[in-house]
Amino acid sequence: MASVGGKRFSLTGSTNNNKDEGVLSKISRSSIVTKGKEAACGATYVGKKLAKSTGKAAWLVATTFLVLGLPLIIVMDREQQLNELDLQQASLLGAPPASVVVPQK
User: Fold this and answer.
1) SS3 of 10-23
2) What is the pTM of this model?
3) Pairwise CA distance, residues 45 & 31, whole Å
4) pLDDT for 72-87, tens place per residue?
5) What is the DSSP letter of 30?
6) DSSP string of 43-94, one letter each residue
7) Contact between residue 60 and residue 68 where contact means Cβ atoms under 8 Å apart
């Protein structure tokens, strides 16, 4: 309990006489606080739904990449290795590198 200007008030809502309400209880029941709580609950709900759908989308993208993208990368890597092996074998046999060979007119 505190006293300001001869009038007693309480922040917790407990008073000696039950006629007066505490400042915090008055504030917590105000329409602004109520609307703020409703907005926070709505934002939390939307946030949870967004996180859930984002997780589903991430799972879908990752799975699609594993099924379609990864085999493509492996095939391209094998093709590059085969090309490099062909160039290496050609250079060992004495043929000029493919970049040096100029077509004749």
Assistant:
1) CCCCCCCCCCCCCH
2) 0.43
3) 21
4) 999 999 999 999 999 9
5) S
6) HHHHHHHHHHHHHHHHHHHHHHIIIIIHHHHHHHHHHHHHHHHHHHHHHHTT
7) no
